[in-house]
Amino acid sequence: MLRIGAHMSVAGGVSRAVERAHIHGCEALQIFSKNASRWTAKPLDPGDVTAFRSRIVETGITPVVSHASYLINLATTFPALREQSIAAFVDELDRADTLGLIGVVIHPGTCTAGEEAGGLRLIADAIAQAFLERPRGTALVLLEHTAGQGRTLGYRFEHLATIIAHLDGSARVGVCLDTCHLFASGYDIGSASGYQQTFDAFDRIVGVERLKVFHGNDSKKPCGSRVDRHEHIGRGYLGEAPFSRLLHDSRFAGLPMLIETEKTKASGKPGTIVTDPFDTQNLDALRRLRTEVVSE
């Protein structure tokens, strides 16, 4: 079955994210390896890296991934922004390797000019450049399927397949599927027939072997809305049934399902380690669904 986990804060140091995951009973984990709203960050503290890697082993939390900064746009046609984005992306890969993560989840990019085909080529070229700069890197690039808001790319399986094809099918590229994004972009995983059609199409177009991570989020908006708004598990337009299907789908056994649902407003001192009621609610919902089958 899928391994259930969450995105956790690194406030106070990356090793603190492991402790937050541990007290919530997480089996897998996603972090930001630096501030997602800034281009640059201080180097990782060696002592904190050692503590992070040790606690990952001790707690058995695996796999662990990072999510790249939201500022990065590998599809941009603006030279300065493109250079800055690629440099930041390479830094994300470096940090993931330092921490021993399996990969970096990244939104493919947003068209700033031209057609989608050109944007997909720009994304692939940026990833290829990163691979050239880090030929011995081990962290995977995990392309996240998007909801399709505005001119964002990656909202069709064909987009992901095209990027991978431009990279000659590199084994260093995987895929992250977000349940909210799938539904919002028009893949009706909410119904039994739509679920089957969606994953049959994914396997045919991209290949199920490329799938490395699920983001588990319900959707505040209906199917095909192209609006990315996460909702608590079972409280949105998806409901519980599609999560139950995923959690019992043998094709995805061992993969992580990481929630990115709303957190409770912070309480206590910054950097403290306390359980979050919303995280507990959503993680418990997934754990319950893993032990029972929910019909439509």
User: Helical stretch count?
Assistant: 9
Low-confidence segments, ≥5 residues, pLDDT <50?
A: none
Count of the domains:
1
| Widest beta sheet: strand line-up | 1-2-3-4-6-8-9-12
Distance between the termini: 20 Å
| Annotated CATH topology | TIM Barrel
Structural class comes to alpha/beta
Top CATH class: Alpha Beta
Major sheet: size, sense and barrel closure?
A: 8 strands, parallel, barrel
- Radius of gyration from CA coordinates: 18 Å
What's the helical proportion of residues? 25-40%
Tell me, what's the shape?
A: globular
Beta content: 15-25%
- In round numbers, the mean pLDDT is 96
Q: What pattern of helices and strands is seen along the backbone?
A: EHEHEHEEHEEHEHHEEEHEH
CATH architecture: Alpha-Beta Barrel
Q: Give the full name of the CATH homologous superfamily.
A: Divalent-metal-dependent TIM barrel enzymes
Please tally the β strands and state the result.
Answer: 12
